[in-house]
Amino acid sequence: MNEDKIKDDLYNKGINAFERHEFYDAHEHWEDLWSDYRLKDAKFVQALIQLSVGYFHITNNNKNGALGLLNKCIPKFEQYLPSHRGVNVKYILDQVDKSIIEVNNIESMNKFNWKLVPKIKR
């Protein structure tokens, strides 16, 4: 398999895992892509990694971790507005903002509204 195919495969595996709310797996695929290959849009992939880890922290009831990673992905995504790789970055940022508000306002991560997680494939 050539390098471009491997990179596409890792990227798409990350998207598919994220869409299934398998945030740790999504992070692993994107981390392999980000760390093993030279990417013109490395910051975008790093933002996806931070996004997935932010939601993963919600599943582990780690409020501070979730807020930290969700906030860290924002400036990286902003560099790719309004869209990149066929992904609606503005929509992702809107959902991240709503998720941050939700995490700040709920008493338990168990009450998180999972409908706020953005869809990467739309």
Structure description:
By secondary structure, the protein is mainly α. The protein has one domain: Hyaluronidase domain-like (Orthogonal Bundle), CATH 1.10.3450. The chain contains 5 helices and 2 strands; from the N terminus they run ααααββα. A two-stranded antiparallel sheet has the order 1-2. The mean pLDDT is 96.
Helix-strand layout with pairing:
Blueprint lengths: L2 H17 L3 H14 L5 H18 L3 H16 L4 E2 L2 E2 H17 L17
Antiparallel strand pairs: 1-2
Helix pairs in contact: 1-2, 2-3, 3-4, 4-5
As for the CATH topology, it is Hyaluronidase domain-like
Rg, nearest Å: 14 Å
Count of helical stretches: 5
Q: Report the CATH superfamily.
A: TTHA0068-like
Overall shape: it is: globular
The beta-strand count equals 2
Terminal Cα separation, in Å? 28 Å
Report the sheet-strand fraction. Answer: under 5%
Gross CATH architecture: Orthogonal Bundle
How do the helices and strands follow one another from N- to C-terminus? HHHHEEH
